[in-house]
Amino acid sequence: MPARAVTLYRQEQTQHQSSKHVVHHSRISSSQVVKKKQVQATEAMAEPAYTVPAFRERAPEGMQEYQRMAAHFGRDLVQLQQELHRMKVATQEQVKGMMSLRKDIPAEVPKAPDFLVSLRSHTVWEKTPVKLFCTVSGQPNPIVKWYRNNVAIEPLSAPGKYKIENKYGVHSLIVSRCAVTDSGVYSVVATNPQGKATSKATVCVRRPQGGGELSHLPGLVPLLSGIHPSKLEVTLLESFGVTFGTEGESVSLVANMVVVPDLPNLPPEAMWYRDDTLLIPSRWAEMSIGGGVAKLTLPHLNKDDEGLYTLRIWTKDGTTEHSAYLFVKDATPTVAGAPGAPMDVTASDANADYVLVSWKPPNTTHEAPITGYFVDKRKSGTKDWVQCNDAPVKVCKLPVHGLTEGASYHFRVRAVNKDGISLPSKMSSGVTAAEVESDVEVYVTIPGPPSNVHATEINKTYIVLSWTPPSPRGRAPVWYLIEKCVGDSHIWQRVNTAVQLRSPRYPVFDMEDKKSYRFRIITVNKYGSSEPSEPTAPIQKVDPYGVPSAPGQVIASRNTKTSAFVQWEAPKHANNLMGYYVDASVIGSKTWFPCNHRPYKHTRFVVHGLVPGDTYVFRVQAVNSYGLSEESQESAPLFIDAALSTPSAPYGISLLNCNGSSMTLAWKRPKHTGGSKIKSYYLDKRRAESVDWKDVSPSPAVHRIFTVENLTGGVFYEFKVQAVNLAGVGLPSEPSKAFACEAWTIAEPGPAYDISFWEVRDSSILVQWRAPVYTGEGPITGYFVDMAKKGSSDFVTVNAEPVGHCYLMVTGLETGASYVFRVRAVNAKGVGKASDVSDPVCAKALPGTKEIVCGVDQETGDIFLNFEACELSETSKFSWSKSYKEITESSRVSITSSGRHSKLTFVNPEKEDLGIYSVAVTDTDGVSSSYSVNEEELKKMLDLSYNIKHPIVPLKTELNYEILEKGHVRFWVQALKLSSSVNYRFIVNDKAITSAEGCKISHDVSTGIIQMTIEHFTKANEGTYTIQIHDGKAKSQSSLVLVGDAFKVALKEAEFQRKEHIRKQGPHFSEYLSFHVTDDCTVMLVCKLANVKKETTFTWFKEDEEITVDVPPNPMSGSCSLPIPMDIINAIASIAGSSASELVLQCTPEGIRLQCYMTYYTEEMKTSWFHRESKISSSEKMRIGGTAEMAWMQICEPTDKEKGHYTIEIHDGIKSHSRTFDLSGQGKWRLDC
């Protein structure tokens, strides 16, 4: 048990020992009843002392800890036993005192239940017992029931947990081995026919820090007693780095280690920290160690988890540790634009009346400002969240009241802005809404007033009043009333009318702005009310602090290739500062993003996850419970690259040639350039037997090849090299081998040098090298490239035939494998000496690698090759090559570079531009790419280029015309798309036409239609019509030739429509003459009229002779009809039959058709069709119909069955007229026509 907790417990026990149990009661009872109850109460109190149970035997290695814990708990149990004994003695004295005050009354008088001794609140340690007891009287004897948090206690539901006893009016409840979950409000209810009485008390069970049972998992061998984890030697190997996660995801931090000795049952002792706070295993943090691996898993990330994580392991020499930052960004909100979730929700100042909930605000970069917060609560053991505040609270804390006393709650918070509500925060730890009363036992009835009434917290939303409880206040439970008045008015108003306050502090919300209030407190118990306390000084609802002022100057500097070090000045007005938020923005983007998602407490921060080669600016905001400050001024732009330092040492010095008095040397560039371009190199030399180094030359070498002059033949020399950059001179290289100054006379070539790797991909690598300085006795004709896996000496020649250039694309490599290469030059005399073995290279593409893209500029039509680098340094440059020969000056191409992009543009592409083009980015880890331009692709690009340089306006339809209602002629064309700046003109017979009277020209951008309407179309309009369109750079033209017969048809139609329009200006037929046969076989001639007037006349004619009708027609009705007797049909049939032509065969898409032409034909005539003397009825196979001058029969999909003679008969009432056609297939006509 911690010393602090033990001290607190003993202080409470001391208070118990010094308190007195006095109960003042005024009831009267008989002496016999008093004596009898005294005896019964004495027996009830005489219980055996509580003894510590015997624990099981402990293993030797756990005995020391057990004895320590047992000693602490044993002393506490003895003290608890003594206290219980003193309580029982005091209770007996109380009972005796009460009985002595009673007067004799008849025992049979009915009485309501009354508690002579009420329940008392207790605070106990976990795994210790607690006993609640009370004394109750009543006539008849009351029935007593025990409750916890208003839930009846049933001993049988948890055997051994609860023990309920009743001995002559003394009722007790014993809770054995209390757990933290046993905390709550315990109540006892006594009931009889006369009424009901209730007594309550709060039990708070506390857990000692680090408390827990010691036990071994079954099946595991006990720890070796001779070795402690701190005696192990632990060396950390690969450890977790800076990690990025998102809310709701799972993240694991893993560290590998070597443990000596490595004992399976004795893993090292590891501790995990977040921002120097020790983490303990829970459902939010899972820890494991063993097998050389320490692992921390966060199964459900929250922004509360962001911070610096440290793994600290005890070793033989102390501790070894590793730290890295974990960033947790906001999860995607359910509503676009909603803020991120708040964090670090804590519940404090818990009491029976309210709980103070506080939190930290989220960062906002592109989101709208936060307007407030909603706080939700959830009872432990339930799943439903209930919103606590109706309106958003603007400050990051809220007193939550209306809680159930004794119940445990969790809280969460949601942020609000104009776009919506954020996701909820991580819920707080559970807190119990209960207050442990002190056991004050002073003989008083009406309590005194509280003292020291003051405001402990003031803001614009609420104030918190606190006061010192009255002393003494008596045994009866007390509560408090709060009254307020405006200024010095002395008109007091009750504040908590519906709430019974039991805690000496309470938040007050109902206050008007800009008004001062005074407050006073009254203590109340069942006996009455105290005098009011002294009123407070005037208190006004204001924000004493507000948000902090903006932080001062922000300075950003380089840290690594993906991080920056940002520091700033603290704000002048901190106002209870919580921390800072750091934001970053890429130059030119105008978009800010958060660098941390949880307030950072210090004024310096390392921003991780930046893109190498980009330039950023930074800003900082200060945070407190009122929100975020104004943004600081932006930092100066910072190019992201490693911090500037001197270069590392060059290496790999090799001898390329020697003529007996000079040596040509080459070396490899430093692996780390120090963030700046290497300017030059200094060379030193010495004789192999000497220790003194001398400068080779007073001026440094500019390139990585140098000829050392004035050497002595036959002497062995050693060399070393130092690189120089802006930061200074770097470390010297290791001394080279001892090279003999002897002239080379071999016939074969010397070694190639400067092997480099480009276009590294998952299965291929481009190997490049420089030609040997010493060529031997003839020109070099080619090269062989040898390859081996890293660590192997078994080289394999890649190319079967020598390559004639200094590069080779090696394919078919194993992804992720590392290889080394060497090159051998060839001349006529043979294969020369192999080059030095290259550095290992891994066949794996750089993250984010992109290839060269070939395209055509949509504006200019230029053909280009474009490349975007995945990595860039401040000194990087783009180097373009054709066939791997650098392009320096060329009239064929132009090169432009900006930021990460570089573009090679062809001036006038032709066949000589075909080939392999490559680009490499200097001062990077081999960022490069290549592209092969072949003839087919060049032709395709040239076509696209021509279309862009000579654009056309795409037309949906060509120029066309149509005749309108009044005889107007409309010429129109429709484009797929037109802009508002389109220009066009119509040309007729080589003459431009403009919009004027009689000719209207217009266009509609939305439909793409351009039109010209000629109102009076005459013979003079014959000719060729053309429209020319200009829309930006695009052009288009369309023509229509309207001459000869085509023009005559158009002119005839235009004149007809013009006459029709004129005709319709007076009375005219809207429907011409037609007829139908009525049910009484009368032929009815009908026509419809339009635009008639009263003076309009209507006359019927037959063959130019006027017909006199019985009923004059009425033109105003819009329709006129003339009935004709049926014999006219026969007359028409006679004329039609006499004029009928022979049957004619006509082929149609559906089959064949037999047609008979005649002067008149109508379906009312008696017409019949026959096939082989069988009458034919109209059907899907045989369709019968006709027009005004023809009768026909359609045979659909004819077969052999349809062969034979076909006849049509027309009856005129006197005789029949027939026409026959032979469709036998033997003669002229066949079915396959």
Automatic annotation (TrEMBL):
Pfam families named among the record's database cross-references: fn3 (PF00041), I-set (PF07679)
Any GO BP: sarcomere organization
Species this protein is from: Anabarilius grahami
Fibronectin type-III domain segment(s): 341-435, 449-545, 550-643, 649-743, 751-848
Descriptive protein name: Myomesin-2
GO cellular component: M band
Domain (Ig-like) ranges: 113-204, 1067-1168
Keyword Repeat: yes
Compositional bias (Basic residues): 18-27
Disordered: region residues: 1-34
GO MF annotation, one: structural molecule activity
Source domain of life: Eukaryota
Keywords assigned by UniProt, alphabetized: Immunoglobulin domain, Muscle protein, Repeat
